[in-house]
Amino acid sequence: MADTVLETVDLQMAFGGLKIFERLNFSLRRGERHAVIGPNGAGKSTFVNLVTGVLKPVAGRLMLDGRDITAATPQERVRAGLLRTFQINTLFPGLNPLESMVVALCQRDAVARPSLRATARHTGQIDEGRQLLERFGLLDVALTPTRMLPYGKQRILEVALAFAMRPRVLLLDEPAAGLSTAQGVALFDQLRELAAETTVLFIEHDMNLVFKYADRVSVFAGGQMISQGTPDEVRADPVVTKAYLGN
Amino acid sequence: MARMQISDYFAHQSRWGGWEYAFWLLWIVLFFVPDSNLVLLTQILIWGLFAMSLDVLLGYRGIPSLGHAAFFGIGAYSAGFLGKYGWTEPISGLLISALITGCAGLGMGRVVRGLHGVALLMVTLGLNMILFDFVQRSTDITGGDDGLQDIVIAPVLGMFRFDMYGKTAYVYVLVVVFIVTLLVRALVNSPFGLTLRGSRESTRRMIMLGAPVDRDVTLAFGVSAAIAGIAGALLAQTTQFVAPEMVAFTRSADVLVMLVIGGTAVLYGGYVGAAVFLVLRDVFAAMNPVYWYFWIGLLLVVIVALFRQGILPKLAEKWTRFREGR
Amino acid sequence: MTSLLTILFNGLAYGLLLFVMAVGLSVTMGMMQFVNLAHISLSMLGGYVMVWAMDAAGVPFLVSLLLAFGACAAFSVLLERLVLRHFYGADDLTQVLLTLGLLFMSIASVAFIWGPAFKPVTVPSWLTGQFSLAGLQLERYRLFLLVAGGLLTLVLVFTLERTRFGAMVRACVDSRRAASGSGINTDGVFALTFALGSGLAGLGGAMSVNLLSLDPNFPLRYLVYVLIVVSVGGMGSITGSLLAACLIGVADVLGKYYLPELGGLFIYLLTVIVMLWRPQGLMGRAA
Hints:
The structure holds 3 protein chains of 3 kinds. By secondary structure, chain A is of the alpha/beta class.
């Protein structure tokens, strides 16, 4: 029935004495679009950092497709198909989008080991990179250094790079942050079209986007998951209203 | 059309430019110019190679080092020991020295790869000082300040003896420098080179693309060290002398200054910087050695303040704008 | 046993001297993240100012020391306003290269003005020779260094812990943004701290002439030691610099006496080990 692609089992985390996630049991269904919402400081980004291996949990397990990845390095998780974007653009300022794409694809296809074979000869990756840039509307700026791109294009590139790696699970940390409403909608539409088979978890503050694109929603507050369900269910949940207004 | 440009981008980046041909042609021509100072020119080539080796680490991967002379010295002493104790064939001696230094580089990379900022600078500096102190002190092994004596280097390819005028040395060094530069050129134009540059720009993003950044740093150190070792070995072989000065911190500082002046991450910046530095030093040493420090200091300040990328990238920028303005 | 105590005494005196020379750099690096290799040039300047004051103007020794402090503090203000402050946001390597260039220029300038030879200094008679204490023969000048250095340390610690200015300095080192946010004039605090630190560098340099000898190449000889004190001690930490300086001073003298084959190696080994074990320094804050 509901096929679980990613789950946390009794996940615990702490920063010094501050406890976050006492025993988090979260599961992500295959193919769903899952929104994670909650007030600032609720632990949403920490959650993504734990799942991607940037942070190590104090206790608990992480399973990807039934495999225990708790001890896996961030790179190993990427190779297993777990990709993420950052809340703040984490791109290569001095490289242009084409170079960024091609280096990502070469890493994906494991052809970036030390060699004397010119990048120019890797026509497969170059063509695919070009196509991806075209599909994400970045072709016109493909050769402009990333640092010179407008914020909106940078944000799209951030998502496009993660997508280029053929993720099975894509974790997006506030993908529409800093984008106009129209840009945000365009980005999500693009993802809906391109990432049909990918499971997507996205942290968002814009409720319109959440209600439009999410199958299920989880609400985090004060380092705990306090509610989970369809967008309508969560909207009606009094616990959620209290969390947003009570603090 | 945009599509053509994009598909052609990488090929365009790795294509040989006209000035590249001119650069190597110039070195060939200089050999035949009468009364050209072959000794100084050979020094420029050797230092340029040394600076290029630092470029792999600093320019392309963004890892600064205040102790790169350590690798130069290891290469020099390796070649010196080989020549002193019977292994006089130069080309194989060069390769062995490169291998030894490369291994030292891999070790160093493994040790420093978690470090950043001041700690990284201090460890590279500290290791350099330790090696220098050891070399200077171990007079029975290295000859100390008197240097390594009685180094014998056989004729290159069995035919060309190292002569007093430096002709054999010049050609030998030029050929080696050319080959090594070609190899480095291929490496930086490969996906590995692109990965290094990306890691320099954002290590975090590189990790999140699954790149083995730690392993790549170690490898960058290994390659950089091996090339520095070749430069050191070339000096040892062509002068048949090795002194602790080749491992000194001043040499680490000098090569860093050369690279910065010439320009990082443009492959040929090291050669340009070495030429500027050595020619100026030659000129000023003749006048008054004290002035040298002043002008090189001023040049450094000016370059850092105004042309942070260095001479070569600045010239390239002006050339591009000039052509576009036409 | 006597030799060990003498060595400790000598080492501590040397260490306190290094501390006075390096502490300014540590605090400004901790506060502004600014790597200033030219700091050691200020020590050299202090030495030359003192020697010139004594030789050319007949100024007494202790007054010359104060003059060195003042001259270097004043000069540093000029340097900071004209050149350095444009590079506060630049990356580490840029700052290293810039200040290295300034260091080179300082060597040449000093050689041009005062010549390339070593400058001897004639300290007053009450500071020459040795005196006996508990069966040990100790040099008077080293005792002077110990006492003067110790007093300066106490003044620094007192200033930092008990005065309002000290509190502002600590706030700025801790977090410039927070300090600025709570109304502290961080630019002003930094300017004053920089001047004081540079003055101390000059004072330390002047005090060192009798022990370490002075010539235009002084910066090249002692730059590494100052960098070691700052990095091993931890940027921004006065107590860290003190600890590291004493450690380095004692280790250097100990090493040269008991293990002359190792020589200066000991210090560099210590530095590398500390940096690998605790990259932020002994008392620095972890990133």
